[in-house]
Write a structure and sequence with these properties.
The structure holds two protein chains of two kinds.
Chain A (H helix, E strand, L loop, with lengths): L3 E2 L9 H18 L11 H11 L21 H32 L1
Chain B lengths: L9 H11 L6 H4 L4 H16 L6 H4 L7 H6 L5 H18 L4 E4 L6 H7 L5 E5 L2 H10 L3 H4 L6 E3 L1 H5 L7 E7 L9 H9 E10 L6 H4 L9 H8 L4 E6 L5 E6 L2
Parallel strand pairs in B: 1-2, 1-4, 2-3, 4-5
Antiparallel strand pairs in B: 5-7, 6-7
Helix pairs in contact in B: 1-6, 3-8
Classes of the chains: A mainly alpha, B alpha/beta.
Chain lengths: 108, 253
């Protein structure tokens, strides 16, 4: 869509475009996770659950024992998984939030 | 009700110095707890609450961005001073960087930026997102602001990604949150939109200071975007570790 100029006539924010963008981002995330990218019939629970399945790591507070409680650290493979999953999940949660917001503005 | 008690932190004291030792235009109305800001944030929160966002942990994690309007609406007593350094840094960049065309991915009720919207020598373009929707509905609608002849335009986020505005903007501002993705598509998009010789300011590149406090900074997921930027040809990258962290990119002329 081309650039829109401000005017006294009203808002130039376009919730339909914002919604379309958010849904493409969510669908892309679902594709990455091997899910069928049907945004309308999924839930964020489904997507986060799929992300957790793709990025298995043990959370810091779930480790039963530590060899050195003053210097707690994850194995390198777990750290890699954490970074990968955070990049995916944070953007997904934002896109989910933006989708709901755009739908809200669209309904006004 | 008794006045709230809070600890006077080093950051609070530092930011008080930023307030008290600076001389800038609109200081009184840009201070981050003024009535105008409180009005706009309260109105925004009230509207967003009607959208019934999913607030469960699985839906929002522990992400401050997804609770931003609640924080704005019910600010901690330190909030105003705490944000001052952030506001001041942004205003410094806007005031000292020579620019004529700007792309902004977030909107803020800063009078210094609104001045630029009223300046015929400056062109300000926003990205079509939630921040922009809020700006139009609850900031621009303020009677005193709306009385000015403000001019701006908007492009869609997809336009940033597909290169529709390649090399068009000599100043770009966004938050690291605008760049998040499993890929580097947004970094590439904004960098492409930056004109040769232009400046790009990314805020919150510390991830709410997490990069400075994690056991190893390189383990924070925001570092990946910045390392990617470092590897791009034809730009200089300056990570400024103040408050929430700023990364300033200068594209070679």
């Amino acid at each position: 869509m081309s650039k829109r100029e401000s005017s006294a006539a009203g808002y130039i924010y376009d919730p339909a475009e914002d919604l379309a963008f958010a849904e493409v981002e969510i669908a892309t995330t679902m594709n990455i996770l091997g899910m069928t990218p049907n945004v309308d019939t999924t839930t964020i629970d489904d997507i986060i659950t799929a992300s957790r399945a793709m990025h298995p790591y043990v959370a810091m507070d779930e480790r039963a024992t530590w060899t050195n409680t003053k210097r707690r650290y994850r194995p390198a493979a777990d750290e890699f998984m954490v970074v990968e999953s955070r990049l995916l999940d944070e953007h997904l949660r934002h896109a989910w939030y933006w989708r709901n917001a755009a739908k809200g503005f669209q309904a006004l | 009700m008794a006045a709230p008690h809070f600890a006077v932190t080093e950051m609070f004291k530092k930011d008080l110095a930023a307030v008290n030792l600076s001389k800038v235009e609109h200081e009184d109305i840009d201070f981050h707890s003024n009535a105008r800001r409180q009005d706009s944030t309260s109105q925004t929160k009230a509207l967003l609450d009607t959208f019934n966002f999913d607030r469960r942990a699985i839906a929002i994690g522990v992400d401050p961005y997804l609770e931003l309007w609640d924080s704005y609406d019910n600010p901690h007593p330190e909030w105003a001073a705490w944000l001052w350094s952030h506001g001041l840094m942004r205003r410094m960049m806007l005031a000292t960087t020579p620019w004529a065309t700007m792309l902004s991915a977030y909107c803020d009720p800063s009078q210094s930026l609104l001045d630029h919207l009223a300046d015929p020598a400056k062109t300000v373009t926003y990205v079509n997102n939630l921040d922009f929707a809020v700006f139009e509905r609850f900031i621009k609608s303020d009677a005193e602001i709306d009385a000015q002849d403000l001019s701006y335009s908007v492009i869609d986020t997809q336009d940033v990604l597909d290169g529709s505005h390649s090399g068009e903007y000599d100043f770009i501002e966004c938050s690291i949150g605008n760049l998040l993705s499993p890929t580097m598509a947004f970094v590439d998009g904004y960098l492409d939109a930056l004109a040769p010789g232009g400046t790009w300011m990314i805020t919150n590149t510390s991830g709410y200071r997490k990069i400075y406090t994690e056991r190893y900074y390189s383990l924070h997921h925001y570092v990946r975007h910045q390392k990617y930027l470092q590897n791009q040809a034809g730009i200089s990258v300056f990570h400024i570790p103040i408050d929430l962290g700023y990364t300033i990119i200068r594209k070679d002329a």
